[in-house]
Amino acid sequence: MSANNFRAIVIGGGPVGLTAAHALQRAGIDFLLLERRPHVVIDAGSNLVLNPLGIRALAQLDLAEPLNAVSSPLGEINRLDHNGRDIGDVHLFIQLAAILGIAPRVISRHDLTRVLYDTLPAEAQQKLLGNKKLSEITPTANGVVVTCADGSSYEGSIVIGADGAHSLVRDLMRKLSLEKASSEQVNAEHPFLTTYRALWVRFPRPTAIPVGTVSETHGTKLATQSFYGEETGVIGAYERMEAPTTDRIRYSQEDQEALIKRWGHLPVSSGSVNLTLGDVYDSRLESGLVSLEEGVVENWSWNGRVTLAGDAAHKFTPSTGAGCNNGMVDIVALVTELQTICSKTSDSALSSSAVDSAFRAYQSTRYNAVVSECAGASMATAAATWQTVIHKFVDRRIICRHAITKFLISRGAKSAARSTALDSAASEPRGSAGQPFGAPTPGTLLRAH
């Protein structure tokens, strides 16, 4: 395959896939995005938190300003136990803003995908195809052919799997590894372990609850997190399962109602508005019950033809809001590597081994960071659900100590900054800790084409 006709086929049109469209467009790499739903912009799904890592990556693609216009900064985290008693506020988001120079923000999935779609150039929007459910990936001498369930097929150089925790791209990559006897690249059939299930509910924000409010309820076996945006709030109720499993579990409406029967009495706010989990569920605009898979896939790519990003490669519990954000950082890292190998080739052949080296460099750049993030998210969920006596003690007596959280954030700032500084960058503003992690100069991670 030639660098002049190098084309990436992105599978999945969620936030990570749309970030890939932006990054590839900016890097001057041709692409096609295939989404199984009719359109990438949908008014459905839970709200999301954009953290400093994700915001910094998106700022490199000139997306920070339009996203700020439709999102709300988050402040103090108010925490209760199951009996409604105050267990100490946490200033994590406030400290992140002060130390790193970027405030975490809450945004609806609709607004996030709308901005990511609308800010693409018209010619790039034409490359986003809906109603395209992946069926098969066939390697060829010069690249890949992707076949969809409707019988259509598309030729490309590589496939980027941004299709979530239950990734069909990952399944087909494993199949290719087994067929080609590439035993050293074969991933586990079920790479993620599920210890928690989560009920998420999106509901109208009560007018008495200020925008940007964050509330949590902690206690044995179940914890909740609530985030309030301009129009809606979203709550996640994380319930520890009877036993961990690697099997995929599908839940019904009856399962949601059974969880509410068990836990609907729990308080999820304090002050002038006293909401219970049952109250929130009764006022729901949308809701869903899902498994919270955790883990990091061992091999993120196959043979210079297929690679994974986001939840397809690593899955965290949502307690720290790190999942989607790390997927966006994945994309910046991956496309930077692809741009580097393409820029070194004009009319000469770009071999699959060269692409494979880029894929491996991408995974090497990101792997340790996501393993650490995954462990941190797991620890946060275990602490909030008081999994052991030690978790309960840490949650009630340690996490609420502002000096401790400030120290931990400051200590991690330097490595966090390094994890996204993947290309030569202009000098960036600094947070109060003096770390080069402030609001970045747009376009410094990817060289504009």
UniProtKB/TrEMBL annotation:
Gene3D superfamilies, alphabetized: FAD/NAD(P)-binding domain (3.50.50.60)
Gene Ontology molecular function: any one: monooxygenase activity
UniProt KW Zinc keyword: no
Pfam families reported for this sequence: FAD_binding_3
Superkingdom in the source lineage: Eukaryota
UniProt keywords, alphabetically: FAD, Flavoprotein, Oxidoreductase
UniProt similarity note: Belongs to the paxM FAD-dependent monooxygenase family.
Record domain FAD-binding: where: 8-351
InterPro entries, per database record: FAD-bd, FAD/NAD-bd_sf, FAD_mOase_fung
Region of interest (Disordered), residue spans: 420-449
Protein's name in the database: FAD-binding domain-containing protein
